[in-house]
Amino acid sequence: MNLLPYDSETLVSALSKEEVLGHLNRVTKEVNFLDQRTQANGNIIFNGLIGRRGFRISKVVNRADTFLPLVLGKIEGTPRGCIIFLSYRLFPGAMFFLAFWSIVLVAFTAMYALVIPNYSYATICFSLALANYLTAMYFFNRQVKTSRQIFHKLINFQMKD
């Protein structure tokens, strides 16, 4: 389990860069969540943007998930296929709230440990900060695993065609 909300991997594919981007383009849709007409249908697996050199996608979900990873990919073409560089990270809003509450709880821990000597409150604040962070990392890593499996299945399935 990673202790930071970041993960990366490098994949080597026998598919060309254009084929990988084409496969991703078929199962990815740019979504405006304020417009019902842009919501995903059955064959859409990812929300996001596909560009010429890379992509920025996330798995389609039916309900809100704070710890859903943002998958940033860069594709480099080679004579025998392509190399896909993937990085998984928290969305900026989720990262902000994780950092905010971690900093607030650690500040309260320091205040109760150093300024106002109340070690039971300091222990409670530190325990809450630790529980908050570890819970976030657990759910983030679980979602990274799911997104990784879907991406690998997509690439491997398309190679069999």
What can you see in these coordinates?
- The protein is α+β, with helices and mostly antiparallel strands and 161 residues long.
- The chain has a domain at 6-93 and 149-160: TATA-Binding Protein, CATH 3.30.310.
- It contains three helices and six strands; from the N terminus they run βαβββββαα.
- Strands 1-6-5-4-3-2 form a six-stranded mixed β-sheet.
- β3 and β4 (54-59) form a beta hairpin.
- α2 runs antiparallel to α3.
- The longest helix has 42 residues, at 119-160.
- The model has no long low-confidence stretch (mean pLDDT 88).
Q: What is the rounded Rg?
A: 20 Å
Helix content class? 40-55%
Strand order of the largest sheet: 1-6-5-4-3-2
Under the CATH scheme, the architecture of one domain is 2-Layer Sandwich
Strand content: 25-35%
* CATH topology group of one domain: TATA-Binding Protein
Mean pLDDT: 88
Globular, elongated, flat, extended or rod-shaped: what is the shape? elongated
Largest beta-sheet details: 6 strands, mixed
CATH class of one domain: Alpha Beta
How many individual helices? 3
Task: Supply the helix-strand structural class.
Answer: alpha+beta
Query: In whole angstroms, how far apart are the ends?
Result: 34 Å
Order of helices and strands: EHEEEEEHH
* Subunit organisation of the chains: single chain
